[in-house]
Specification:
This protein is of the alpha+beta class. The protein has three domains: 5-119, no CATH class; 165-254, no CATH class; 307-508, no CATH class. The protein contains 17 helices and 16 strands. Strands 9, 10, 11, 12, 13 and 14 form a six-stranded antiparallel sheet that branches. The chain has a three-stranded antiparallel sheet with strand order 3-4-5. Strand 11 (382-392) and strand 12 form a beta hairpin. It starts with a helix and ends in a 5-residue tail after the last helix.
Length: 513
Amino acid sequence: MPTNKLEQIFDAIAEALIQSNIVNQDIVRANQKTIKNGIIQRGREVSDKLILFEKDVKANSKDLLGLVTGDTLETISNSISDNWQIDIGGTDETDVTITLTDNLPPAGGTPVYDLTSILYDNDQNPINVSQFLNINKESQDIDTSLADEFLDTSIFELLGDTTTRQERIINFFNEFQNLIGDVPEFNVSYGLVDDSFSSDDYSEDNDISYANETPGVESSDKFITRLDVDNTDDENPDGKTLQSLRDTLNTYLVDIDQEFPSPEDQRPIYKNKSDGYLKFRNLNQGIIIRNTNQQFIEGLDSETQEYLTTGFTITMWVRFLDKVSEGTLFNFGNPTRTEDTFGFRLETYVLNKDDACPNEYHDTWNDAVDNIGVDYFTDSDSARFVRLLIDDGGTLRDSHVGMPNASKIANTALNDGVLTYPQYDLNRESTLIQNPHIPENFSEWYFICASFNPIVIEDVSAAPGSSYLNNADYWRNNVESDGTYTNFSNLGNRCKVEIISKTDLLRARGYRV
């Protein structure tokens, strides 16, 4: 291994001479050194011992004495860059030119040096081949019949440990992993590769085919060509790409690549029983139902208010066509009127994401939703709800339930004929977010079932400190006092609203939707 640039120059000169047409065995022998009469001399016969020096600098010491434009070979080696080359010209020993070209000369430096007169004058300083060895081509005829008499010609080869099949497989995968390069950044969006991905750019940066056919591009750091269309050079044979490998692998994996037909949906399609429906263009506009034979409809007497004892259930199919309409879906009397209060009301309302929330702990309804842990505002800036209100003999009840981080609010009673809810009780007004939520789907029908059950002991259920204040299932009458679930517990809300979409209802009944 050369220790300095001067020794590297001598090595490069030697390599260039070997590859030129100048050097032959006669020139080598004429310039090799031997000892005659105790003196190192040039010119060696076959019988003379060859003298070799440890370094070319020692063997060609006269090269260090010559001058070219005032420079010696040593000063030249110190002034050139690390990017240089040696060129040998001429056809024989009498016609030799030696040139050193600096490919990156320093500022003000000389790019080309003629080293001929430094390294060679065909007299006192011969050509630098004294360190070369002669290789003579010789052969000897052997009489095989005589050799068989004295030699054992049965030769056996002793082989070392062979690589097992499993080891070869592991080595293949390890080598393959090292030669495939980085996975392209396809930037897939909606199942399609983004336009920002360039197959040509990837080929230039990674494929060995591109490096093989492009001058100046180093191939030692490139990888297996990705596409057949990019494999255009002669050095990389056809079929040596990732695409061709993929095609070959597909022939071995037909069983797992096959696509089975989707199972046929044999569920029946529901057919509507009625011919149509009534459409109310605006909430609070609808039908007034009355009994023409007597003052009140049976069970809806404002004087006796027997519905507070028997209970009631209201059901209807509703489709909401916008995200702003609010109003009454069904009412009897007015449970929030400040005078002559009686009756109940099923209503819908909309809460906007950035509107102020009356709860002192939350600035907006979005803050309240985040606190509860529901996603009402993920797909829309507004959310629709439904609630049932009833004046229960002087106590205003509604259908809101307890939720995580949002307790059920105890009932508010009438005080001197004036309701404190919802106009003045801000904490109760914050429970608007705790009523049943209607998903935003303008093409979907929703079945709403609102009920009032007077046998539920709600006042005891809502005692302060109750461990079920935040349990929605408890307030829907489905959890006993010991925590077990049931279809009806007699505890929780008297007012309850349940909702199911037409799609979910038909799917639950076994229809195809």
